[in-house]
Amino acid sequence: MSAVSQNRLPALLEALRPRQWIKNGFVFAAPLFAFTLEVETLAVVGAAFLVFCAISSATYLVNDLFDLEEDRLHPVKRKRPLASGRIRSSTALVVALGLGAVATVSAFWLSRGLAGVVVAYLGVQIAYNLILKHLLILDIMALATGFVLRAVAGGVVARVELSPWFLFCIALLAFYLGLEKRKSELTRVDRTGVNTRPILSSYSRDYVSQIETAVLACILMAYALWTIQGAPTAWMMLTAPFVLYGILRYQYLSVREIVERPEEALFRDRPLLTNVVLWVLACFAILALRHLGRLG
Q1: Rounded to whole angstroms, how far apart are CA atoms 243 and 170?
Q2: CA 20 to 30 Å from 67, out of 4, 96, 199, 286?
Q3: Contact at 8 Å (CB) between 63 and 129?
Q4: Closest by Cα among 59, 47, 34, 230 to 153
Q5: Phi and psi dihedrals of 261, rounded to 5?
Q6: 124 and 131 in contact (C-beta within 8 Å)?
Q7: Model confidence over 121-136: pLDDT tens digits?
Q8: CB of 91 within 8 A of CB of 19?
Q9: Helix 39-66 vs helix 89-110: angle between axes, to the nearest 10 degrees?
């Protein structure tokens, strides 16, 4: 391997956005909440997680190719490997196609249902880049759909029944995070005077804030209904305060500073990270006690 190729490897890895693979953790949501912790189940769900890491990285590369000119004008995105010229567009395209092919074939090998979810995910991403990212609200709904499909993928490979309230909670939460992303982007435009995303002209901070209020109430109501009607035990209601605090903390961070991606806030803000860890531990403790017959 030449020295030039070796120098491009770190840039290529950066372009795959491994920090955003945390989003693929939604694949584990359904089997964990169903408390299906058998080694075989976790192994196949882990494989589905890797499939989504590959397919999501492929779509990140494609997104960067579509947004190349806009990213070069963005104060932060212009530092990305493609926008900065550290990797070639042809290289990114080849890697994206390769990852997409590997992910699709692997999904078919694991489960036809998973393959269907992966194909649906690809379809949403293609539609987003070609059309949906230019349409008000539908752009955010497309992003939210990606999270829902991740959760569906975990349920499919683990053969876990997916509660409608469970999927509704994930859809609402993902939509909320999309709204927060748009709000952060509007804040950046206000500060820099540079708008590289045309759809932002259709949004305003007041409009986003109004929708946020409604979506926040819907999230809390949907989560409460899931704990009562969809969760393995109604004791899961005890975890609702963690959900409320996490959402309000994230909203607080988005007001005080520009936070365009959830993983940024999660890794940088200790109270938010601590809250997520405590929520996971609380969920696991309740489900474990229920599994042992200590809770109804």
Answers
A1: 12
A2: 4
A3: yes
A4: 47
A5: -135, 135
A6: no
A7: 999 999 999 999 999 9
A8: no
A9: 150
Is residue 64 pLDDT above 90, yes or no? yes
Residue with tokens 């989504």: 52
* Cα–Cα distance for residue pair 282/294, rounded to 1 Å: 15
Q: Is the dihedral of CA 267, 13, 185, 142 positive or negative?
A: negative
CA distances from 48 to 61, 203, 281, 286 (A): 20, 36, 23, 26
**Which contiguous run of DSSP H or E holds residue 153?**
helix 138-158
Nearest residue to 172 via CA among 141, 209, 149, 202: 141
Q: What is the DSSP string of 169-234?
A: HHHHHHHHHHHHHHHHHHHHHHHH-----GGGGG--HHHHHHHHHHHHHHHHHHHHHIIIIISS-G
Cα separations (Å) of 102 from 96, 98, 99, 115, 129?
Answer: 10, 6, 5, 12, 21
> Which of 264, 268, 272 is CA-nearest to residue 242?
272
Residue with tokens 């899931």: 226
For the beta carbon of residue 221, count every other beta carbon within 10 angstroms. 13
pLDDT of 68-119, one tens digit each?
Answer: 988 888 887 889 999 999 999 999 999 999 999 999 999 999 999 999 999 9
Contact assessment for residue 176 and residue 154, using Cβ atoms and an 8 Å cutoff: no
Amino acid at 115: A
CA distances from 20 to 5, 136, 254, 260, 271 (A): 24, 24, 18, 12, 20
- The CB density around residue 195, as the number of other CB atoms within 10 Å, is 17
Count the neighbouring beta carbons within 10 Å of the beta carbon of residue 125: 23
